[in-house]
UniProtKB/TrEMBL annotation:
It comes from Lawsonibacter hominis. Keywords: Amino-acid transport, ATP-binding, Nucleotide-binding, Transport. Pfam families: ABC_tran (PF00005). This is ABC transporter ATP-binding protein. SUPFAM superfamilies: P-loop containing nucleoside triphosphate hydrolases. InterPro entries: AAA+_ATPase, ABC_transporter-like_ATP-bd, ABC_transporter-like_CS, BCAA_Transport_ATP-bd_LivF, P-loop_NTPase. Belongs to the ABC transporter superfamily. One of its GO terms (biological process) is L-amino acid transport. Residues 6-237 form the ABC transporter domain. It comes from the Bacteria.
């Protein structure tokens, strides 16, 4: 397996005095799908926000493509090729689908490629092309999630963190979105998938990391860990 594109070592993140991520250590090898699993409140979203520069860590280091990005603001992290699709990602409902997507290409380097990036997103999600001039407020939940994913892809990232993108969506839509994620992974993009559904996570991620109460308590190749071991770590049994 290749050198990790992302290394998270001993990361701690707090809200005031409350420690949401106590000690997170994990590697993400380049070009594969990695799942991060854990129950409600395990610290998954806080860890993703911290990696993406949305939340500042209070300890530890985050290394992306060999560069220390610990505490770097999100707008700079994006420029380096790391994008986040945040949990509950919403689009701007009074803006058209296309304007929502174009907003994702705000870094200068991405702006130059906006046409190509749009075409790529439309290839991935043809329904967005059909609806590109519609207000995002008229879209279904699944289509809005596609817009949120598309927006993150507009910067041509090398690594994308997807934070519970399946939440509240119908099974057929989830299946479709996951197929598209596998497609972009197959094209060389590295993917981190935050999931509460352990079965789906193991099936999709080549490697799984399990978080429990702010710590990464289990890591390994999904096929070797197996569902039972992962479930035990998930519930802290
Ligand atoms: P979920 O699956 O519910 O999103 P999670 O694993 O992503 O859970 P986090 O959202 O990172 O977990 O939350 C970790 C802990 O931090 C929880 O105890 C949560 O209540 C707390 N927390 C999250 N956001 C905040 C905040 N803005 N202020 C204070 N505490 C927060």
């Amino acid at each position: 397996m290749s050198e990790p594109i992302l290394k998270v070592e001993g990361v701690q993140a707090k809200y005031g005095d409350f420690v949401a991520v106590e000690e997170a250590t994990l590697d993400v090898p380049q070009g594969i799908i990695v799942s991060v699993i854990g129950a409600n409140g395990a610290g998954k979203s806080t860890l993703m926000d911290t990696i993406a520069g949305v939340h500042k860590p209070t300890a530890g280091t985050i290394t992306f493509k060999g560069e220390d990005i610990t505490g770097m603001p999100a707008e700079k992290v994006v420029l380096r090729g790391l994008s986040l699709v945040p949990q509950g990602s919403r689009c701007f409902i009074r803006m058209t689908v296309e304007d929502n997507l174009v907003m994702g290409s705000y870094p200068k380097a991405a702006r130059a490629k906006v046409k190509d990036s749009l075409e790529r997103v439309y290839e991935l999600f043809p329904v967005l092309k059909e609806k590109r001039n519609d207000l995002s407020g008229s879209l279904s939940g699944g289509q809005r999630q596609m817009v949120a994913i598309g927006r993150a892809l507009m910067t041509n990232p090398e690594l994308v963190l997807f934070d519970e993108i399946s939440l509240g969506l119908a099974p057929t839509i989830i299946k479709d979105i996951y197929a598209r994620i596998k497609q972009i992974s197959g094209e060389g993009m590295t993917v981190v998938l935050v999931e509460q559904d352990t079965k789906r996570a193991i099936k999709t991620g080549e490697i799984s990391h399990v978080m429990l109460k702010g710590k990464v308590v289990l890591s390994g190749r999904s096929a070797e860990l197996g569902e039972e071991e992962i479930k035990k770590a998930y519930f802290g049994l």
